[in-house]
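> example.struct
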């Protein structure tokens, strides 16, 4: 019966065959025609991917793999399985999260198949997928090793598209390790080579992410770290515009989340709320697991900054729980920061220090150091909140944060720390030292003067300058 239905559909209704391959896949599966069934399941999965129906695509591709196991082991079967696995990996990343165990299994199996078949043409996307899996598990040593292999394969093949994706991978890996100048170089290579028409199809193979949008977003983070806030915001705006142009729902959703981080860096909390609320709405509709975890964390951060601390803590904790269920540890030291700031606002430094210790343990465990300087600065702030007797230890934390930021060329984090240390020295009566330190760092900046950190630093400089003027006048009067 199923074979007859399949024959009728194929001979008389070619439009149904084209538009509903899953229907043919079902009938051939039931008719015990596995070879034909698998081909239709693959076609159905690919069509669902093009419609951004990722959950549907996962179902079709997994069914294809299930039917494939009934075929005898041959090189042809292995090649078909490799195709199914490399199509399945990106949609599993979108629906389960990059670090989900099923993602790792898909790419491990694909890599084994590449080795069995000696198929160099398929190796690059498999290495790339494995890299993304390890990156989001914050297994940065493994991710960095894969980045080197990815760059090597791209260079060997001489394929410009593979080179673009290789520099994208290298840009993200170096960013998370706190190598901001290297990250900028890699990401700018991607942005310079990217063509939205030529490269829009790459997302289907590489994590569901448009490389142009993602590179612009990460470049905006990198530029902020390096001390160019206005340029960072410009690149963030370009990422949003490009995301709308490429019409990739997953990339659009992630781009809204990426933009929220830039707004957190620059203290634009209203814009952050607008972006992240839309991202959560889109992620909820389409089942994008990673944003469903990270989104509430960012929303909670904005709530804390806007004075709704208890509500913010609830949202942050819910988000952290959901984020961890995806297997992800990348960004966790950063994403724990809003809890630390919330406890500081509540004058509960012990809770804040416990959370900070958790974040710092993750830094040491994973080697993810892009926010390490800020964690050191916050430790100093919490120690001062806990007791004014801890000023010496707090000052040590500030000096360590300055050292890290300077080593990383992270001028924005250096400015934050210089502001904290200058304020401590101001309270200790060391206004000249405070003014000299802060003025040296602040004077380096050429843009971003409307952003929160630079405004705070300018306000403190004005206080210190006024104090110095008053002291000088008082000394002259005494004479």
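> example.seq
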């Amino acid at each position: 019966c199923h074979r007859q239905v399949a024959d009728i559909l194929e001979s008389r209704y070619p439009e149904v065959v084209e538009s509903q391959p899953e229907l043919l896949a079902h009938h051939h599966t039931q008719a015990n025609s596995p070879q034909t069934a698998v081909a239709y399941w693959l076609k159905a999965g690919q069509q669902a991917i093009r419609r951004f129906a990722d959950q549907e695509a996962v179902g079709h591709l997994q069914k294809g793999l299930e039917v494939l196991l009934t075929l005898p082991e041959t090189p042809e079967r292995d090649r078909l399985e490799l195709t199914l696995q490399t199509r399945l990996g990106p949609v599993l990343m979108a629906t389960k999260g990059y670090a989900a165990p099923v993602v790792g299994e898909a790419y491990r199996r694909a890599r084994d198949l590449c080795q069995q078949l000696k198929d160099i043409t398929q190796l690059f996307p498999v290495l790339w997928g494995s890299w993304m899996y390890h990156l989001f598990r914050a297994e940065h040593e493994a991710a960095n090793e894969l980045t080197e292999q990815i760059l090597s394969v791209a260079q060997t093949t001489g394929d410009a598209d593979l080179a673009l994706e290789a520099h994208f991978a290298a840009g993200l890996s170096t960013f998370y390790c706190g190598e901001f100048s290297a990250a900028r170089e890699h990401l700018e290579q991607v942005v310079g080579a990217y063509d939205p028409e030529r490269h829009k199809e790459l997302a289907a193979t590489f994590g569901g992410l448009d490389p142009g949008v993602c590179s612009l977003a990460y470049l905006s983070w990198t530029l902020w770290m390096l001390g160019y806030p206005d340029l960072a915001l410009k690149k963030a705006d370009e990422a949003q515009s490009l995301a709308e142009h490429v019409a990739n729902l997953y990339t659009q959703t992630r781009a809204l989340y990426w933009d929220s981080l830039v707004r957190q860096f620059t203290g634009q909390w209203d814009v952050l709320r607008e972006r992240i609320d839309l991202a959560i709405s889109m992620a909820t509709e389409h089942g994008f697991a990673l944003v469903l975890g990270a989104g509430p964390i960012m929303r909670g951060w904005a709530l804390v900054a806007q004075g709704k601390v208890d509500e913010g803590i609830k949202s942050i904790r819910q988000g952290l729980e959901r984020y961890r269920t995806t297997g992800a540890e990348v960004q966790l030291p950063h994403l724990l920061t809003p809890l630390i700031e919330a406890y500081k606002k509540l004058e509960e430094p012990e809770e804040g220090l416990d959370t900070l210790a958790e974040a710092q343990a993750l830094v040491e465990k994973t080697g993810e150091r892009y926010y390490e300087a800020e964690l050191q600065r916050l430790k100093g702030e919490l120690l001062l909140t806990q007791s004014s007797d801890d000023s010496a230890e707090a000052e040590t934390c500030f000096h360590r944060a300055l050292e890290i930021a300077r080593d990383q060329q992270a001028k924005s984090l250096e400015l934050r720390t210089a502001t904290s240390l200058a304020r401590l020295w101001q309270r200790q009566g060391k206004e000249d030292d405070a003014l000299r330190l802060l003025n040296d760092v602040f004077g380096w900046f050429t843009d971003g003067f409307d952003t929160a950190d630079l405004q705070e630093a300018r306000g403190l400089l004005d206080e210190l300058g006024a104090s110095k003027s008053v002291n000088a006048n008082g000394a002259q009067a005494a004479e």
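> remarks
Residues 452-478 form the longest helix (27 residues).
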